[in-house]
Amino acid sequence: MKDKVSVIICAAGKGERAGFKKNKLLAPLYGAPALWHTLKKFDIPEIDEVIVTASEVDFEEVCALCAPLGYKVVLGGKTRTESVKKALAEVTGEIVLIHDGARPFVSKKLILSCVDGVKKFGSAVCAVKLTDTAVCARLGYITERLDREATFRVQTPQGFFTEDIRRAYELAGKNVYTDDSAVYGEFIEPARIIDGEESNIKLTFKSDFLRELPPLPVGGLTGFGVDVHAFGKKQNFVMLCGVRVPCDGGLVAHSDGDVALHAVMDACLSAAGLLDIGHYFPDSDPALKGADSGKLLEKVVALIGEKGLKVARLSVTIQAEKPRLAPHIDKMAARLACLTGADEKNIAVAAGTNEGLGFVGEELGICVYAVATLNEA
Ligand code: CTP
Ligand code: MG
Asked: How far apart are CA 111 and CA 297, in angstroms?
């Protein structure tokens, strides 16, 4: 049977060194509290349970961030050691990763390699080699040179079998340690290090929030798509977002002319860094004559799936003087959810006329804009 994996996220500090008026973890980073980004990183199927430590002053705010993700929040202690000990009491998984809320740049790859490391070595502590020469100095003078090859900066996550690290913390009593590997090393055995990531920095000072930070798109990867089709087909409907909408004329196209799905496909392909739909579905291809654009979108979803991505959000705006679209909007969102696998509540479809202006206003055609946000699948 698969080991259950729990995660403890330490967020019960004061974050004083950063000099904000509140805990640094609740200060904004890319438009959301820094802690939010850390929490989101563990919202993956491989993690079964997340427990977050919070101080009394921040408790409510941390609970509000954790609620949509279904994470448990426990009251922390005066020191990180005390906070972790309290959280360990709540852990139900066989494996536990302990991570600083102040490290929002941890990657999914690192999280998974930490879990694998525990299974292989019994413990897994993310660490990176020093690039500078390291020395010890006392009273301003170098007293010792450290072997750079054997000197590491230790990060989190740090993973252990729960029963081992729990025992170590019990034995630690009231002693204070700077990290979990120190507790484990003192009472169980030397902890095993695995490769950390240079980008997995800990937000400590205000300057860490201001300097050029590693890319961390709030909602994933974003792409934009636009398409236009002209009226001119003798037909009493148009296809929009996979929905047949009655109309006094049809759109001219090689495929079924679903101008909205074409814009959505381009938005998804662009977000994934792929080429446009013309490349994958050329209108010179006789096999695509009258093609169901819904089927093409499913192929696009498969293509982005091969890159480890899935559709998280869609925002679609249709500009059309005719037909009247309001009664069909909900159906369109439901159809997009079905075709892309995205949650319907994350799909927005809007429609408007062009106030009689331009080719849309003159009822010569329909124009659709789409923005797609992709996340890791
Ligand atoms: N932490 C905790 N409980 C404590 C102290 C710290 O859970 N009593 C957490 C912090 O919230 C942080 C992590 O441990 O995510 C690492 O600690 P550090 O970076 O030192 O954060 P703070 O102690 O909050 O910051 P400072 O030392 O600047 O006040
Ligand atoms: Mg501290």
From this structure: 32
Residue 277, Cβ density class (10 Å: 0-12 exposed, 13-18 middle, ≥19 buried) = buried
3-class secondary-structure state, position 143: strand
- Span 75-87, pLDDT tens digits: 999 999 999 999 9
pLDDT band for position 307 (cuts 50, 70, 90): confident
The pLDDT of residue 308 is above 90: no
Output the CA–CA distances (angstroms, integers) from residue 268 to 272, 294, 333, in the order listed.
6, 14, 16
Using alpha carbons only, give the angle 371, 372, 373 rounded to the nearest 5 degrees. Answer: 125
**Tally of CA atoms within 13 A in the half-sphere of 27 that contains its CB:** 20
Residue reference for tokens 């236009």: 228
Q: What is the pLDDT of residues 11-22, one digit of tens each?
A: 999 999 999 999
Element (H, E) at 347: strand 347-352
H runs (alpha helix) in 122-220? 162-172, 180-187, 206-210
Q: Residues with Cβ within 6 A of ligand 1?
A: 10-17, 25, 53, 76-80, 83, 100-102, 202, 204
Q: Whose CA is nearest to atom 27 of ligand 1?
A: 15
Of 100, 174, 181, the one to substitute when testing ligand 1's pocket (max ligand atoms within 8 A of C-beta) is: 100
Q: Hey, whose CA ends up nearest to atom 25 of ligand 1? A: 15
